[in-house]
Amino acid sequence: MAPLVEMIGIEKHFGGVQAVNGVSVDLFPGEVVGVLGHNGAGKSCLMRILSGAMPPSAGEIRVGGRRAEIASPQDARDHGIETIYQTLALADHLDAPANLFLGRELRTRWGNLDDRRMLEETRRVLARLNPNFRNLADPVSKLSGGQRQVIAIARAIHFNVRCLIMDEPTAALGPAETAMVGELIKQLRQEGVGIFLISHDLHDVFDLCDRVVVMNRGVCVGSHRIETVSKDDILSLIIKGALPEGWSPRTTGVRQ
User: Fold this and answer.
1) CA-to-CA separations, 2 to 66, 191, 209, in angstroms, rounded
2) Which residues fall within 8 angstroms of residue 251, CB to CB, at 6 or more apart?
3) Were 146 and a residue from 22, 129, 167, 177 both cysteine, which residue would form a disulfide, CB within 3.0 to 4.6 Å?
4) Using one digit for the tens of pLDDT, what is the confidence trace for 123-159?
């Protein structure tokens, strides 16, 4: 199976500061890859390059095995790459359909907004994620954190997403809402969507991810199948940039 996305030898310089230094990562269909590291480790910078929010200083991005020029978020969306930021980037005063189609509104043949069609399509995509979602006409400011996250995910998958970048999707959510977002991620994985999951929550990482990539000081210091490492191993990579002395892969298949 070919990767959905490959980032090869990516570098990013800010003057004399090298935020990302020769990093290569890939993502396969139906795979969730955790991208971890301290603040300033380069993980968010790497994902912003893939999302088109900033250009790389060097390196290559391939989508579906072909070189892709991603110079803007629109370029990324054209390649089926969508991003859900921690802030969700929702317009609080608008309802779910208006947020789902924000910047990509549907229009009638006379050029007017096609509110009926946008409502129908919003109802359909939200039902796919959460059949109990009923608050379509409410401003999103009145919705719970979990419901807002559903709208953000719906906006991404409605436009034929192949690769989804999720930045701290469960931050500031309660246990029930965190569990709901986890189920949504598992559902998307079953549908063949590849997900890069940026997270500081090791519980989420070990529950949801197939593989983990750890960055430290702009360098990728480890890429491991999640069943071969423990939480202590990951913390060692995050803090020290290396696995514990004498480390060997776990072979029990039990996530620790």
Assistant:
1) 11, 16, 19
2) 228
3) 177
4) 988 888 888 888 888 999 998 888 888 888 888 888 7
CB-based contact 203:178 (threshold 8 Å): no
93-110 pLDDT per residue, tens: 999 999 999 888 889 989
Distances (CA, A) of 19 to 1, 14, 165, 216, 218: 31, 7, 19, 10, 5
**How many angstroms separate the CA atoms of 137 and 92, rounded?**
12
Domain ranges of the chain: 5-91+162-240
At 256 the pLDDT is 45
Measured CA to CA, the distance from residue 195 to residue 83 in angstroms comes to 10
What pLDDT is recorded for position 180?
A: 82
DSSP state, 30? T
Q: Identify the CATH number of the domain defined by range 5-91+162-240.
A: 3.40.50.300
pTM of the model as a whole? 0.87
